Amino acid sequence: VRVDSKTGVTTVDRIWIAHDCGKALNPTLVEGQMEGSAYMGFGEALFEEHDFYASGLHKGPSLLDYRMPTFLDCPDLVSLIVEAGDPEGPYGAKEVGEGPLHPSIPAIANAIYDAVGVRVDSLPFSPSAVLRLLQQKAQQEAQQKAEPLAVASGGRPC
Amino acid sequence: LDEACAALDGEEGEALLIAGGTDLLPNMKHGLFTPRRLVSLRGVSELREIRETDEGGLVLGAGVTLSSIASHPLVRARYGAFAKAAGVVAGPQIRNMATLGGNVCLDTRCSYYNQTEFWRGALGYCIKKDGTICHVVPKGQKCVAAASADTPTALLVYGAKLRLVSRRGERWVDLDAFFVNDGIRNNTKAHDEILAAVALPPAEKGAFAAYHKFSLRKAIDFPLLSIALAVQKTESDKVASLKLAVGALTARPRLMRLNGIALGRPLTPDFVSQVAEEAHKQCHPLLSVAIDPAWRRDVVPVCVRRAFDELAPATAGGS
Description:
The complex is a heterodimer of chains A (158) and B (319).
Chain A: E1 2-3, E2 10-11, E3 14-20, H1 27-46, E4 76-82, H2 101-116, H3 127-146, H4 148-154
Parallel strand pairs in A: 3-4
Antiparallel strand pairs in A: 1-2
Helix pairs in contact in A: 1-2
Chain B: H1 2-8, E1 15-18, H2 24-29, E2 37-40, E3 50-52, E4 58-61, H3 66-71, H4 73-78, H5 80-87, H6 92-97, H7 100-104, H8 117-122, H9 151-157, E5 161-166, E6 169-174, H10 175-178, E7 194-200, E8 207-214, E9 225-233, E10 239-247, E11 254-255, H11 269-282, H12 293-309, E12 312-313
Parallel strand pairs in B: 1-2
Antiparallel strand pairs in B: 3-4, 4-7, 5-6, 5-7, 8-9, 8-12, 9-10, 10-11
Helix pairs in contact in B: 5-9, 11-12
């Protein structure tokens, strides 16, 4: 990912997806399912938001306000099929559907941490949320710089 | 055009104009407009002309599509920020249908207004349509729906003029004077008038401009903030004049007051910072867009700086 430290906007450039689907009966379809799932998780991570007004009305009741990523927002998706045949499954197959959906969310969160050192822990990882965390981090760092002794004595162990 | 003017005459707002329909039709589906009659401008060929004036300016018919503006060699060469603004509206299919006139006259938008009749009704409607209260500013008596079109912000810094035609005659009006700061209706076009053309003054030597759209998605998304910038430089590379317009925050796109910025200096980082801070002071996003207003205010100076980074010279090419 790339994180714009001035605006908090996160751009996901590429997602590598490895998925054990058992025997891949139709590898092209399997890749399609994997890409679709990762895209879905990516959309949930960065864009889609179920938020409500105090009145109880949804804040994004249309496909314009409930933002799903467009073609231009979507990262490159690279699928790596892991075939470990399942003797219990039909023709050795397991599943391919939502498997890669859930892991793409924490993977993106970890990538954001790797890029700028802030832990996002609620969805979506919106630019405003990321920018607030970056501002807090900068503030803490400035405080630690100003009071190095306090950190040395009262800092958290490790 | 005469025929279209005649069709509007005496209708007292019961007839509405339709060109691309990309704003009007969704709004009609939401019950925001309920005209008895639509007057289509698609057959009016003079609205689709782009011509150079003798002085070297450009006059664009209001029916020119946004995609033709974005790809027009002369517009791109001389009015690059305007071409850019036209090219970042919605998505390609919409730009193929949507017209310049429709974009300039785009209805103001608000998260409490651009919703289905059902959704709006659940809240008892709002001050802009069918109701008496504002959900954005409780107790507010003034509608704060925001001007969300891309091209007017860019056209403002070029000093564009509009030609309005009706059966009563025609008039030219400065784009800046065309808009008013009222979310319910943000322009001064009378119901029987048709926006026929947009005129741009000649691009001078040493003119630079930029348009910076800030939105969450890279397509099919209205701007959360839009910045247009025009800088006129002297031969010794000093700033002779400066215009900065901001869109998507208030009912009208507006030119920032930059009286406090001393001109006649080179375009240094210090100069850019002063302008960015001045814009930050003058911009106050509201919840008319359901996205954190404090954050949107934080990005104002960032976007102004980026617009300066994106400044590109007007060139004579294209014809």
